[in-house]
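so im writing up the methods section and need the Concanavalin A-like lectin/glucanases superfamily protein record in one place, dumping it here so i stop losing it
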Amino acid sequence: MKKNKSILLLSFALASQIFVSCEDSIDKTNSPIPYESIGGYENSDEVAATHLVSKFSFDGTIEDSKGAITGGTGTNVSYETGVKGTAYKGSTTSFIAYNNVANSIVNLKNITVSMWIKTDPHTGGAQSLYMLPKKTDFWGNIFTLIEGTGPATTMLMKNHIQRDVTPSIPWSGQFIEHGGTNVLSNMFGAWKHVVWSYNGTSSTYSLYIDGQKVTLPTSISKRYASDPATGGGPFGELASSEVSKFIIGGYQQHLGAPWGNPDGWMLHYTGLMDEFRIYDSALTDPEVTALYKLEKDKR
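--- predicted struct ---
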């Protein structure tokens, strides 16, 4: 009987050791596994971190987490599930007006604007995604518009910037237009990552959709590289002026004085927008790709 009891105790001891060993193994197996880096980054805020000057995540708030654009008031603003957290949900009457714009935005020499949009075709005019206004210019300083023209499967997009030109020349009404043979396809009904940049040193414009650089003719990518009015020299760096306020989802004309009433074709943005960012540099191709993949991965 004692012998059987000894054998039973020994068996129990061995079983306990095996259980502890297995438990240790399970704990090690279930330990958190770090995210695999993308492009050398762990999260989207690490991409060109020193050049990120403004960021709106729209996670239930209209605030700029970088504090460069402040004093915001939302009109008929609501939120819906976004790429990361929630997203701004536009409508025919929605927009956000900001009263204060920091020098980091006013004095931009180069720029990258990045955002996620999800929208549907529209008619009746052009919807404004955002605008950096100018007090005495009908077209403002910087904006991106979506035109309600063309086949329902394509998007005609316009981007506008002010540049430093000496001698000064009028630039009102001049845009980069992704229309005609350069209209953007398959842009509606799903989340699309849209990035455009302007490099003031090379006077070069670039556009990216879902992390991929769009092949553009030199008439667009080098649109600003040569100006006959200045002897063929480049337009050079950005030169925003008379900056007043900032608007998301509308035109400067929706802000009231000193601008007149909006024209009938000036439409509010009716789609969704998420992770809106402004950089003070032209991001590289790998940086844009990494930003797209990280945000898509909700990082």
